[in-house]
Design a protein that fits this description.
- This protein is α+β, with helices and mostly antiparallel strands and 75 residues long.
- It has helices at residues 7-21, 25-44; strands at residues 50-51, 57-61, 68-72.
- It has a 3-stranded antiparallel sheet with strand order 1-2-3, with helices on one face.
- The longest helix is centred in the middle third of the chain and has 20 residues, at 25-44.
- The protein is elongated and about 40 Å long.
Length: 75
C-alpha cells in the first residue's frame, strides 16, 4: 500500500518541527523522524490504527509522543 500525505499533514509536521527546533533542532529532527516512521508503518499495517470518530478514518497514536496520525484507507 502507498502512503500519500495530505497538504495539511505536511504543514502540521513542519509546524511541529519548527516549534521544537526553537529550543532543540536535534530533538525536532528526531520527533519528525519518529512521526514519519509511524506513518510509513501504515503502508504495511494500515488496520493497526483504531477506528476514528469520523467514519472511514483511523487514528494511530505515535509511540512515545503526544501526537496522532489520522488516516483513511483507500483502494
Amino acid at each position: 500500500m502507498t502512503v500519500r500525505y495530505d497538504a495539511r499533514a505536511l504543514k502540521d509536521i513542519e509546524a511541529i518541527h519548527e516549534y521544537i527546533a526553537r529550543d532543540d533542532p536535534i530533538a525536532a529532527a528526531r520527533v519528525v523522524s519518529r512521526i514519519e516512521r509511524a506513518i510509513q508503518r501504515l503502508a504495511v499495517l494500515p488496520l493497526s490504527a483504531r477506528p476514528g470518530r469520523v467514519p472511514g478514518t483511523r487514528v494511530l497514536a505515535v509511540p512515545g509522543l503526544p501526537y496522532v496520525v489520522i488516516h483513511r484507507i483507500t483502494r
